[in-house]
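Hi there,

I know you've been waiting on this one. I reran it after we fixed the sequence typo, so this is the corrected version. Both the input and the resulting structure follow.
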Amino acid sequence: MRRFLLLAFLSTGLFVHAQYGTNCEVRQFKLNAINPGVEYEMALGVNSTLDIRVAYKAALEPASSQPLEDFDFFPAITVQNRYYHNLNSRERRRRSIYGNSGNYIAPSVAVFSPGDRVVEGQLVDGIHGYGGLVYGVQRSYDSGFSFSIDAGAGYYVGPFKGTIQPVVNLSIGWIISEKRWCVGL
C-alpha cells in the first residue's frame, strides 16, 4: 500500500509538471470585435490549450436547403482543445509566441441558441450545433491585438437532418488580461 501511495504521489508530481510548460500562456481573456463576445484560453499542457468563446457569431443556417448560401448571426458557445504544433520552431527562429502565436489543430464543438426562426417558410426552433476538427492560425502582438482564424469540417445536428458542413471561425480582438508562464519571451 505504501509503495502504491508513493508511486501515486510521484506520478502526481510528474503530471503537475506536465500541466504547465514554457510555451502556452497559463490563461488569457480576450474581447472579440468581429464576432462580439469574450474568449478565455487556458493552458492544459506544454503546447495545448482549452479555448472557450461566448459570442454572437455569424454562422451557417443548417436548417436551410442551401446552408452554404444562408448565413445569420446566432448566440453561440464554442469550445476548442487546441494543440499548437509549431511553438517550439517559432521560438527557435526567434519569432514571437506571445499570446499563443502559432498554428494549431483542434477538435471544435459549438452550440448555437438562435431561438425560434422561420427558414424557407417553416418554423424552426431549438438549439443546434456541430462537432468537428479545424486547423488554425493565431497571432497576438505586444499591443494586445490578437486574431485567429480556423477552418475545417463539422457534423451539424439540431432540429433538421444532420449533415457535414464547413466550419470557419474568425476572431479579431484584444487581450485584456493575461498570465504568462514564461516571462520575457
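Quick highlight: The helical segments are 2-19, 87-92.

Best,
R. S.
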